[in-house]
Amino acid sequence: MANGAQAMLRTLLDAGVNVCFTNPGTSEMHFVAALDTAPEMRAILTLFEGVATGAADGYARMADKPASTLLHLGCGLGNGLANLHNARKGNVPVVNIVGDHATYHAQYDAPLQSDIETAARNVSRWVRTSRSTAALCQDVVDAVAAAKGPPGQVATLILPADVSWGEGGAPLPTSLPTSLPAQPPRAADDVIDKIARVLQAGGKNALLLGGRALREPALLAAARIAARSGARLYAEVFPARLERGAGLPHVERLAYLAEMASVQLAGLDNLILIDARAPVSFFAYPGKKSYLVPEGCTVHELASPRQDVVGSLEKLCVRLGADQVAPALQEAQRPGRPRGKLTAEKVCKAVGHLLPPNAIIVDEAQTSGTMLPMFTAGAPRHDVLALTGGAIGQALPAAVGAAIACPDRQVLALVGDGSAMYTFQALWTMARERLNVVSIIFNNKSYGILNVELERVGAQKAGPRAKSQLDLNSPGLDFVRLAEGMGVPAVRATTAEEFTAALERALATPGPHLIEAVVPSVFSGLKLRVLPYLLRSLGTLPEPVARALKRKLAP
Amino acid sequence: MANGAQAMLRTLLDAGVNVCFTNPGTSEMHFVAALDTAPEMRAILTLFEGVATGAADGYARMADKPASTLLHLGCGLGNGLANLHNARKGNVPVVNIVGDHATYHAQYDAPLQSDIETAARNVSRWVRTSRSTAALCQDVVDAVAAAKGPPGQVATLILPADVSWGEGGAPLPTSLPTSLPAQPPRAADDVIDKIARVLQAGGKNALLLGGRALREPALLAAARIAARSGARLYAEVFPARLERGAGLPHVERLAYLAEMASVQLAGLDNLILIDARAPVSFFAYPGKKSYLVPEGCTVHELASPRQDVVGSLEKLCVRLGADQVAPALQEAQRPGRPRGKLTAEKVCKAVGHLLPPNAIIVDEAQTSGTMLPMFTAGAPRHDVLALTGGAIGQALPAAVGAAIACPDRQVLALVGDGSAMYTFQALWTMARERLNVVSIIFNNKSYGILNVELERVGAQKAGPRAKSQLDLNSPGLDFVRLAEGMGVPAVRATTAEEFTAALERALATPGPHLIEAVVPSVFSGLKLRVLPYLLRSLGTLPEPVARALKRKLAP
Question: Residue B419's closest chain A neighbor by CA?
Fold first, then answer.
């Protein structure tokens, strides 16, 4: 006879959930004790809940199935909310198991008592507090099913300590598929017909691909449609997972800066959404538009996140007679080895120069975000995981999860200095689990992006006290010592040669590594220095558009 | 004419709030820009929101008035929830300002859009989203008034970006008192009479002091009552702020371990609560009681957190004719200088040996928690701030806040290795602000307390996979490098001599310091090694009680 925790672990395993990112406390001790009865469950300890939830997010993006987390009451869940927000916005499946006081203990309002369900609802479409050991395994099955979707979502099961320690748990055999997704419906015939007619009519049209439409099968179908119809292909700004590189269709990501995204979208007659939402500005700015679809552009939805995006794209392909068309594929090409004083551009060049096949790039760095796509477009095939919900502190934890999901693939995390400090504890788990992650920290000694944002919101006349709020240079952060303090070998690079050599060594040596890339802020003197890169990262802007963009970006 | 942010800052200052712990993002840039119009507002940058909220908690405990925080949308608030939970449980006033998207932007469900009010309600008794620049300053006044209480509480004001940047803000002159508390009512005559008769009747009685009843005026009144009536004095397990040391009445804290608290409370006829709650077990355990008041003991409430605790105690004093009684005061005494291999006990001895007058001790370390009170009881007068809500990661941030509130006092933070890693980013703010904080990290290379809890929940047969979840030794954490990485000088001590010398140097040198105290886990082999300390920390247990306790603690 099993107790609740033992039966729960067995049911999770039967449902295909065999990884648990943990940060347990007293109320989770029976779950922890039960781990020895379920050796197939890989329990991965983290030092902070934001690492556990971010790792679960990164894991599910790569494994295409949920991991579970193990969190300690409402406060543990609170610490994990930011990265669960990222999972929620990316339609990524996660099963949270949040320990709680014993059911009979709640009445005493002990110190750690809080309203867990309310906190959970903020990020979870599915929330339940298990009421008895007998009901627990059905709760587990329901949680996993809810998480798997489609679309994937965060499901939170609250586990009172006495439900966990109670005897009489009976694992449920489950017929859940162990991998996402269950087969959802394809786009209806009339939708296909309407969109096909729009594309056949010509004009300036674009497909905006998001979510699961950024994997190879969908990309190939979209590229066939583009080749046949002349439509452009765009990817959403922050994809959960984008497959790209040599041999795959190239898709241009919409820019983070609304001013630039507006240029990308200018003049469109039709925008067709595939598992994506109509583009909006990341933030609002005084006097600037939030909704970025240009006037006169009609928005169509081919497939929502609840539909079969590949099937819908292929159906449209057939309707357009494009299913035998050869899609345009990215040619293999790499930038040269960079030289001289290190800059963010040269870091991106070195990554493009050295990126191994089948790498996973977790890219949270605003410093590199506008340049990396260009320099890695023709690198060997790889996946990019982006900051779906905008909650920083995601890259290092997500890199942990991606490396657990794909032990044979090299993971690179590109992170800004500010962002890295939210969940730096992830380094310890990388060391503990000996994960093949190279963490690259862009140390520009500031919240670089906020210098831009301070200008963009119209607060140009910022004084020294305001600017001090964006400064990370007094004292400067020493990421080499920080990494070594958690058992990860680390080096600092100030020249392109040092950086490239360090990256070569890191890629050649198993286990985690960190490289602190000391770079000037690309955001100071925005107009002079960055604009050329921004424009190049857009691909091939016609000169009048570039001029228009320059005018828009001028203060 | 001011914009919303400028008017808001002016109103905060007028209401006595002149410290803001910040971690801003784009939506807060107008608040940041406005800082240069309000130089009296001290804005203190943190690298993580949990540091900002924990600092606001520590600040208010010492300043007796709220600080504000500046947080970035729902995810920033989420990162700050755990330490706001501690403030909530300690009735500590905090004013959160949480930036949000512009009101018209919410409809687009941009990546960072989330339900901020719901997350805020989890910790805040008062929550409001400001609807217009014209209404903003009244919102600020209401938030500060709500935070001040009594009792103190967390108030969260959500500030949409367009309310912040809008023109037409008019600072409100405010007649709010700038310091807590407004004068609440004293205990009613009939309550005083009833409790006086109980105390006069003799028997075994105790006063349980919590909240504001642990400051000098209340302690003196309680000690007079004790001297006159023979009642014992207890303090709640985790006080928000306890004034103690030579020259003040000594009050024994209830033990964290329910088994020990039950021994402290055994045989009581009456328990009188003053700004405290009837004692309950921190966690529930199979087959053990949650409610710790012994059978046959009657609970009375002299004053709730909403009442005037000093006035109520003094009224009871007068009623008992105790107002001229000399209270028992703690004599000055310090432990000797410890020698030999470092242990947690010797760390506590060294702290007691060297503690400077008027120090502030933030004590989050379970490793030391049972021993420190004994070794510092006769040290010069000091304040102890404890983990009111049980959400770990509190001590380092609270030390930041306490040092900002009391720049002339030495702050010591005692933290376990596990706890320290939740909000270690606090070290950077200590360095940036050159705060006089000595952080002492007990590095026992494990979540030490959980080894006990694993036993206490009855999961004795834990196997290697369970035990691995409590292990922080692969890799070990190097707190010296971690501190140096954030600009704080640090040393490691493995002997009592090294530790004492390091503490002496740290206390003699301005600015932040960290000492990593490498100690064996006091929790392994609980019964053999710790029990004597636990018993001694209780003061003077009669031998039969000690024997009973030993039996209870046996597995």
Answer: A47
